Amino acid sequence: MERAYDRIEEKYQLRAEASVRAGAEKPEFDQALWEEKRQVYEKIADLESRYVMRKAARLRVPTPDENDEDLWLETATGYCLSREGLIYLRRAIRQEQNERWELRLKIIGLASTTMIGTVGALIGLVSALKK
What we know:
This protein is mostly helical and 131 residues long. It has helices at 2-21, 31-59, 83-130; strands at residues 72-75, 78-81.
C-alpha cells in the first residue's frame, strides 16, 4: 500500500512538471491527488485495524469500545482504529503476550527444577545402593 501511495505521488509530480514545461503554472492544490491519497490512506488504516483486531481476537484481548470516538475513525468503507486505538490495542496485546510468556517460563522453571531434583535423588540412591 505504501508503494501505491508513492506511485500516486510520482504520477501527480510528473503531471505538475509537464504542465510547468508547457508554460502553465504548477497547481497549488490538486483535489484528485488528495482524494487518491486519502483512499490509499484509508485502505492502509483498514488493513492495520483488521490485522490488530484479528490478533486481539486470537489472544482474547478485549477490543476498544465502539462508542469511543477517540479510538475509532469513520472512513468511506466503515470504521477503523485511530492511531490512539492502535496504540491502545497493541499495548493490551503485548501485555497479554508477556503474561503468557511469564506463565510458560514459570512452568518450565518448575519442571526443570523438579527434573534436576529427581535426577539428583536417583543418582544418590543408586550410589547408596552400590555400597
